[in-house]
Amino acid sequence: MEEGRVIGVGAEAVLILCTWLGLKAVKKIRIRKSYRHKVLDEDLRRERTILEARLMYEARRLGVPSPTLYDVDLDNYCIVMEYIEGPKLREVMSKLRTKELRAILSKLGYAVGILHANGIVHGDLTTSNVILKEGIPFLIDYGLGSFSYDTEERAIDLHILLRSLESTHYSLSKKAFKMFLKGYSNALGREILFNVLKKVKEIRRRGRYVKERA
Amino acid sequence: MRHYDDVLVLGIESTAHTFGVGIASSKGLILSNINSTYVPSKGGIHPREAAEHHSKVASQVVLKALEVAHVNLEELDGIAVALGPGLGPCLRVGATLARALSLMLNKPLIPVNHAVAHIEIGRLDTGFKDPLVVYVSGGNTLIAAFNEGRYRVFGETLDIALGNCIDVFARKVGLGFPGVPEVEGKALSWKEFVKLPYTVKGQDISCSGLLTAALRKVNEGRRLEDICFSLLETAYCMLVEVTERALVHTSKREVLLTGGVARSKLLSEKLKLMAKEHGAKFKAVRAEYAGDNGAMIAYTGALALKHGIMIKVKDGGIRPRWRIEEVEVPWRREE
Fold first, then answer.
1. Are residues A103 and A149 in the same domain?
2. Residue A100 belongs to domain with CATH number
3. Is A56 in the same domain as A105?
4. Residue pLDDT, tens place only, B160-209
5. Taking CB atoms and an 8 Å limit, are B247 and A11 in contact across chains?
6. Helical packing angle, B224-250 and A151-168, nearest 10°
7. What is the pLDDT of residue A207?
């Protein structure tokens, strides 16, 4: 492993390989955004660093596949975590066989269900934020998440996932979402699933053509 | 000069407060673009009052568009109309007129989606081929890109449109309409940044909490200039951030800003900085094609007609909630 190699430049952070007490690790540094005013920029980076660390720690404790939190360095808006080696779900989705896809998505659904059942929402549930390692979907990038039992927040997670499926894997999206829901309802039960899906529908109707409310 | 494979279309826009007629060819020649915007004396747009305005100005706008283009009705290859998304009463004025023209002239009727038209005029005006599109106006906030035959939505607002948020704020604190230039003007003399709710969820934003909080701060006696600045800074940064997320997600190389709020210099500057950080190009549609206009409907209609998209007059009803993903975009297949 090359220490110090940049393995990813996301929208808000840079990921750098490193070792932490002899373990393979990733350093995630939230970078300054030149388009944001300094006060706002520093506030956001601090808040999200703290939030991500807390959520990731809680998720891991619940047994939801996520990187283990190693260290937090607030002065540098930086988190050190376990390195999960594998492709993003987005990159391999169209190459998977139906059987593999079903296994992965229902596991993912179950994992998200466990998070929701324990008052955690991910906040950015896209196929880019799922890493596959030995057939297990690991959830990463908790920086936009929150602690909430709110149906609306849960529905936003599902809405974001569904749209990420539709916008990049359109032909697979319906099938894939169904597989996800199967695992999700296994963790949360059909009644909650029903309520959350009702809210998803409502969200999808909202925001779009608000001209009607102008 | 027109070519035999080029078609000439008259397009009608009436989705909200603007009634516009344009004449354009599928090769991208804009022959005319005449628009009349209804400005309410007080309060927001009242759909029925706007529709009344549209009916009043309709015939003179059509005649002016023909006159400026030096085209007579017989020379047209089709009549395009924005059937949605938009306000029912307003849409009805344009749709009725388009159906009547189509019947009278015996020319094809072409349905155009208003959001697709904003994207197509933006691509034409900037020369961008395959951009990530940021479409922001008083009624719409969406981030879209072309994929598998259609424009797909990568991000949007979860409640009110960004332009609407700023317009309503402007109105409630006594600044004029449209709100964006007014609030931007006030914001120039800011002194202190005031923290307001910054809500980004995945690739979506939420503006209603921001609006409420900004109004509350003004009522609490905070300096209006400071709140104007903080509101814009917060709202624009939210939008730029979700755009950035979509840019990374889609790996597009171009970022296009279109829609009425494309006139905002401040938003353009921020998007440009962001695009630069990712090695992408940024352009905003020019002011004359930023707001709702007839030319964008005509041009998009011409592209559609060339690919055989037309409907029977009896199917020319309005589609107030017509989603952008429902629209086939065959003219981009050959690129």
1. yes
2. 1.10.510.10
3. no
4. 899 999 999 999 999 987 789 999 999 999 999 999 999 998 888 999 99
5. yes
6. 50
7. 52
| Chain B residues within 8 A of A170 when measuring between CB atoms | 147-148, 152
pLDDT in tens, B281-311: 999 999 999 999 999 999 999 999 999 999 9
Identify which of A168, A170, A210 has the shortest CB distance to residue B161. Answer: A210
Distance CA A179, CA A63 (A): 21
| Active-site hit among A75, A124, A141, A157 | A124
Last residue of a domain, one of A29, A61, A82: A82
Provide the token pair at B256: 């296009």
A99 Cβ under 8 Å from any chain B Cβ: no
What letter represents residue A75's amino acid?
D
Is the domain of A94 the same as that of A77?
Answer: no
A57 and A109 fall within a common domain: no
CB atoms near residue B48 (< 10 Å): 12
Q: Does B39 touch chain A (CB under 8 A)?
A: no
Distance from CA of A203 to the nearest CA of B (A): 7
Q: Which of B154, B156, B193 has its CB closest to that of A208?
A: B156
Distance CA A22, CA B201 (A): 35
Domain boundary assignment for chain B: 8-119+292-332, 132-251
Give pLDDT tens digits for B225-253: 999 999 999 999 999 999 998 998 889 99
List CB contacts (< 8 A) between A128 and chain B: 249
Amino acid identity of residue A125, one-letter, is L
Q: CB contact, 8 Å: B26 with chain A?
A: no
User: Is the ipTM here above 0.90?
Assistant: no
Q: Does A108 touch chain B (CB under 8 A)?
A: no
- Residues of chain A predicted below pLDDT 50: 209-214
SS3 B12: strand
For position B18, what pLDDT does the model report?
Answer: 96
Task: Provide CATH code, domain B132-251.
Answer: 3.30.420.40
Within 13 Å and on the Cβ side, how many CA atoms surround A37? 22
Cis amide leading into B40 (omega within 30): no
Residues in B 213-242 with any Cβ partner in A closer than 8 A: 233-234, 237, 240-241
How do residues A118-175 score in pLDDT, each as one tens digit?
999 999 999 989 999 999 999 999 999 999 999 999 999 999 999 889 878 888 999 9
Q: For this structure, is A124 an active site residue?
A: yes
User: CA A183 to CA B324: how far, in whole Å?
Assistant: 31
Distance between CA B252 and CA B249 in Å, rounded?
8
